[in-house]
Amino acid sequence: MSLIQPANKPFAPSSEENKHVILQAIQTYLDNRKTVLEIGSGTGQHAVYFAEQMPHLIWQTSDLLEAHSGIQQWIADSGLENVMPPILLNVSEDNWPTSQYDAIFSANSFHIMGKNNVEDFFEYVSNVLNDQSIIMIYGPFNYNGHYTSDSNARFDQWLKQRDPNSGIKDFEWCHQLAQKAGLSLLNDIPMPQNNRILVWQK
């Protein structure tokens, strides 16, 4: 079945393709939680799908300003009341929310960010977490300084050609930053197409 882009809305085929497997991986961690902050909501597709499938959650979207109109369109068309309009959030700026959340979710963000952005993410993120809150990060990671596949190596080269500051991050480096922020690794979940979901807990 082909994926048809909805009229006047941003549409990411990858979000449509991976939303089901991501839901299966994260649902257990969110069963007993109430509030989620999604960092880098992108088109908004993940937000409305996860919020629809887990109606007990209040799902707070966020992104840079240029993404907000698309996210708002997805939320408006969904008719869901448990997805909150996007807030402006740049992980390297002092505009993090003052609220605290039971969970943080972010998909396909770390490899777009520069290393300084990921460092800032872990420096600030504890301030928006309740005790026992979790962080779930979806995307590709390197292990022991090596790519996990040839396709990830090609993807990393493409990323760096587009933006020299971006690129696939090393799991061990991210985990060191997480530990420094007072987070413990709960799980490292293998996902299709050489992606992972890293789950940390405060």
TrEMBL record:
Highest taxon of the source?
Bacteria
Q: Which PANTHER family match?
A: UPF0585 PROTEIN CG18661 (PTHR20974)
Q: What name goes with this protein? A: DUF938 domain-containing protein
What organism, scientifically named, is this protein from? Thiomicrorhabdus heinhorstiae
